[in-house]
What we know:
This protein is an alpha/beta fold. The chain has an eight-stranded parallel beta sheet with strand order 1-8-9-10-11-12-13-14. The chain contains 17 helices and 14 strands. It is 36% helix and 17% strand. The chain folds into two domains: 2-24 and 185-435, TIM Barrel (Alpha-Beta Barrel), CATH 3.20.20; 34-152, Diaminopimelate Epimerase, Chain A, domain 1 (Roll), CATH 3.10.310. Bound molecules: zinc ion. Zinc ion binds next to loops.
Amino acid sequence: MTTTRTLINPPAARPAELCESHGHLPWLGKALSMLSLEGCTSVHESLDRIAARAATMIPDAWLQVHSARYEGWNERRWMTRDELDRATGARPTLVMSFDHHAVFANSAALAAASIDRSTPDPAGGIIERVSSGPNSGEPTGLLLEAAAFSTWAVAPEPPESRRQAQITAALDHLAALGFKEMHDLASPHWLGPLLAMLERENRLPLRVGLYGLLDDIEAIAATRTTWESPRVRLLGGKIFTDGTLNSRTAWVLEPYAESPPDLRHGKPLMTPRQITDSAEKCLRLNLGLAMHAIGDGAVRACLDGIASLPSSLRLSFSPSLPIRIEHAELIAPADIPRFAELGVTASVQPCHLLADIEALHRAVPGQLDRVMPWKSLINSGLMPGKTLLFGSDVPIVRANPEDSIEAAVSRRRPEMHERDAIHATEAIDQATAWACFGTRMV
Ligand SMILES: [Zn+2]
């Protein structure tokens, strides 16, 4: 009903064509059929939900669960490995945090991924271990960053025959929310050809811009002429320069108020030099680059990396073939004008503010004035819908654009008191917020 009402009588400020500038079609397609822990309020409620799903599955099938948010659980801790083992038995089970940067594995999944006390942390990842007592050194089950991604990848992929149904479900989900374009931010090599096939069959309900992971970008670019079309386009490469605030892996300039000892400043994943090289690689392929950077340290590294590009290449990117920073949840004041000065686009997800308010108060209580400073970015020269883009990071957060409008305009959840808004002076008006959804790159 709400959708119908919106379509019949759209607010004047709402652009006719909306663009979701940061989403993940393959994950969304999977998530629409996967068990979600969204809305759970405790470890025990989460475990009950997991046990109930496990009981309905065929023996030996992997159970993958998403949207765990321990910050929202009464206990404010992850489940223990024993607790998860009791809920799942010998079935390999992986529980993904809502931000996709942490995975909790049961004993069967750890064994399948060959992770035990002798396994070293992978580059860019952490295998959390018991710190004392008789089990000292044993993996707790919690895996962060690269360790989380590689373990999640051990679970069997859906058969190719199910991919098409999942992608179609994801596209239809976004189209029903009013989107006419979306940008996919870690596109596997098979996605472009699959979308092109859907378009040929008249089953592509929105335009899609793709960003492939940097390691795959040359291979994906090599095939682009076989699948690109007016409605499906390769836009660039994607890199990760840090993690997330919730996992305390976002790279921050000032130490966290509350974090594990080895994550005082989060976890930098790339140097400015590596960022320069990544941008150079993409620009030479005539592509843009999307850089995941959540903490102010990562944002600064990205800006430094782009500032070091040879000047001939600095001229080759533009709002239509952009170098983008994704997320930019914390930005040091000195770095705000550098976006416009360097021609860097900010691709942000205001709806994350609504989800992260508690985490922000705990992690960076002294620096809330650095959080998501959209008004200052606009004042420094970024243009809504052109170089300041809104999206949701679906399926990490639901894709309803109204959530981001709410966050951008009020900087708090509707039920919260005004004084609990995060740095309210950075609020923008509704028309400006909607304009940030008016992007067209494809
Ligand atoms: Zn994302």
